[in-house]
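Recall that a protein's primary structure is simply its ordered list of amino acids. Everything else, from secondary elements to tertiary packing, is in principle encoded there. The following example makes that idea concrete.
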Amino acid sequence: MEKDNTQSINSGITYDHNSTPQTIFYVKKYFEDFKKAFYKYYAKLQTDSNVFAKFVTAHTNAKSSLIKGMGANFSYAVSGGWTGGVYKGRAAL
């Protein structure tokens, strides 16, 4: 089910055990909320050194190729070199 007016929807996923269907997924609202959460996290990643350190540790522990592949460009990308989905350095996120 999709509604164009997501202002009246509080969450991207609703559950009511008394209705059919019991679970409704509002795609637009879900992705609006996801986008807001991502930008909030990205802003913290740029300004909070503890959040940045945890991010690096998580990717290092997971043996992620993200940080390794970007090398010295990684810090630049996170500090603002990468904005709005466009990376200004040589490597892509």
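Confidence is low (pLDDT under 50) at residues 86-93. The chain is about 55% helix and 10% strand.
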